[in-house]
Amino acid sequence: QLQLVESGGDLVQPGGTLRLSCAASGFSLDNFSVGWFRQAPGKEREGVSCINKSGGIRVFPGSMMGRFTISRDNTKNTVYLQLDSLKPEDTAVYYCAADPDRGLLRRCTVTEYTTWGQGTQVTVSA
Predict the structure, then answer these.
(1) How far is 94 from 36, CA to CA, in rounded Å?
(2) Closest Cα partner for 49 from 30, 71, 32?
(3) Gap between the Cα atoms of 111 and 8, Å rounded
(4) b/e map 8-41, b = 16+ CB within 10 Å
(5) Rounded Cα–Cα distance for residues 15 and 27 (Å)
(6) CA 55 to CA 17: how far, in whole Å?
(7) What pLDDT sits at residue 56?
(8) What are residue 2's DSSP bridge partners?
(9) 85-99 pLDDT, tens digit each
(10) With the C-alpha atoms ordered 42, 46, 49, 53, is the resulting torsion angle positive or negative?
(11) Helix (H), strand (E), coil (C) string for 65-125
(12) How many helices (H) and strands (E) does the chain have?
């Protein structure tokens, strides 16, 4: 059974940092494209950043650029999302998702991914 488990979400103050982890079980992420997405209350789920099997990265345009960094460690079967300089508007549930890599850098949209984790809550507040 393919499973993704996110962890690392927490309550942090503005300007703080977090590192989210997305661990896979039941399959190897080596040949998968993996993406991080987020969903704030009352809003649609949106892409944050995606990484393909070769390490190519797509960052969703917007206020997250330059603050969030995706990386992968295939030896640990895990993909990470480093969150720096957090703002209150970054408060959301963060999800990771995976889909077999097809050799192209994804646009990093929700519809491109088929296997999803349950999410981890990130709250940025003073």
Answers:
(1) 7
(2) 71
(3) 25
(4) bbeebeeeeebebbbbbeebebeebbbbbbbeee
(5) 36
(6) 23
(7) 87
(8) none
(9) 999 999 999 999 999
(10) positive
(11) CCCEEEEEECCCCEEEEEECCCCHHHCEEEEEEEEECCCCCCCCCHHHCCEECCCEEEEEC
(12) 0, 11
Reading the block at residue 108, the tokens are 């990093």
Tokens describing residue 91: 């408060």
pLDDT at 29: 93
Nearest Cα residue to 23 out of 79, 98, 81: 79
User: Quick one: tokens of 13?
Assistant: 């103050």
Looking at residue 103, its amino acid is G
Interval 106-120: pLDDT, tens: 889 999 999 999 999
Q: Which residue has the tokens 């646009």?
A: 107
Q: What length does the chain have?
A: 126
Per-residue pLDDT reduced to its tens digit, 21-80: 999 999 999 999 999 999 999 999 999 999 999 888 888 877 678 899 999 999 999 999
